[in-house]
């Protein structure tokens, strides 16, 4: 296993947290890493989701629930019209935050940045994201290969689809 989350305490008591993806273990590793940085004296957090290809909605939801106050985290709707809404409890992290994004921030990485921005707890910095607002089911084939099939759309806490739109950062900084 390779770590999904890395980072360090930067000058100025800023905790830098690089999330490589939102696959298995990402929520537990992110939360543990943030707690460790705060224990080391971090007074603000900088999340880096540049080049993050996304991952699992449940992993994203766990991280957002830890960071955000009570309310809607994100919404999914499949092509049959079935809607699912994930919510956060009242516990949250009250610390200044920012999120770094680029054109290779996909799917769950985009929704991570969008949720923190829409709740007003983080500024988004970097380049416009790619705009992948769809979720897939992966089907394993008998020859060992697999195919991913888009089966629905994600929406931000405010109900915005990022499909083909992406996120325009609050502060645009080209890579």
Main beta-sheet strand count, sense and barrel state: 6 strands, mixed
End-to-end gap:
29 Å
- Give the total of beta strands: 10
Q: What would you call the shape?
A: globular
Strand content: 25-35%
Order of helices and strands: EEHEHEEEHEEEE
Catalogue the unreliable spans.
Answer: none
Q: Would you tell me the overall average pLDDT?
A: 94
Radius of gyration: 16 Å
What is the count of DSSP helices, taking H or I runs of 4+ residues? 3
Widest sheet: strand ordering? 1-2-3-6-7-10
Structural class computed from helices and strand pairing: alpha/beta
Proportion of helical residues: 10-25%
Main attributes of the structure:
3 helices; 34% strand; 175 residues; 10 strands; globular; 4-stranded antiparallel β-sheet; alpha/beta; 6-stranded mixed β-sheet
Give an overview of the whole structure.
This protein has 175 residues and is α/β, with parallel strands linked by helices. It contains three helices and ten strands, in the order ββαβαβββαββββ. A six-stranded mixed sheet has the order 1-2-3-6-7-10, covered by helices on one side. Helix 3 links the parallel strand 6 (97-101) and strand 7. Helix 1 (26-39) runs parallel beside helix 2 (57-67). It is globular. The protein starts with a strand and ends with a strand.
Please give a quick description of this structure.
With 175 residues, this protein is of the alpha/beta class.
Itemize the secondary structure elements and their pairings.
Blueprint: E1 5-10, E2 14-19, H1 26-39, E3 44-48, H2 57-67, E4 71-78, E5 83-88, E6 97-101, H3 108-118, E7 122-126, E8 134-140, E9 146-155, E10 171-172
Parallel strand pairs: 2-3, 3-6, 6-7, 7-10
Antiparallel strand pairs: 1-2, 4-5, 4-9, 8-9
Helix pairs in contact: 1-2, 2-3
């Amino acid at each position: 296993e390779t770590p999904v989350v890395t980072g360090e305490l930067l000058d100025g008591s800023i905790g830098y947290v690089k999330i490589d993806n939102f696959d298995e273990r990402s929520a537990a590793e992110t939360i543990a890493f943030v707690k460790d940085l705060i224990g080391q004296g971090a007074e603000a957090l900088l999340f880096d989701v540049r080049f993050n290809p996304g991952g699992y909605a449940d992993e994203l939801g766990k991280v957002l629930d830890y960071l955000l106050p009570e309310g809607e985290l994100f919404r999914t709707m499949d092509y049959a019209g079935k809607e699912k809404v994930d919510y956060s409890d009242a516990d949250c992290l009250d610390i200044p935050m920012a999120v770094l994004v680029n054109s290779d921030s996909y799917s769950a990485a985009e929704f991570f940045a969008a949720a923190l921005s829409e709740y007003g707890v983080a500024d988004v910095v970097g380049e416009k994201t790619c705009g992948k607002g769809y979720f897939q089911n992966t089907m394993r084939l008998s020859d060992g290969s697999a195919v991913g099939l888009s089966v629905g759309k994600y929406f931000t806490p405010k109900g915005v689809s990022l499909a083909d739109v992406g996120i325009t950062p609050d502060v645009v900084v080209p890579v």
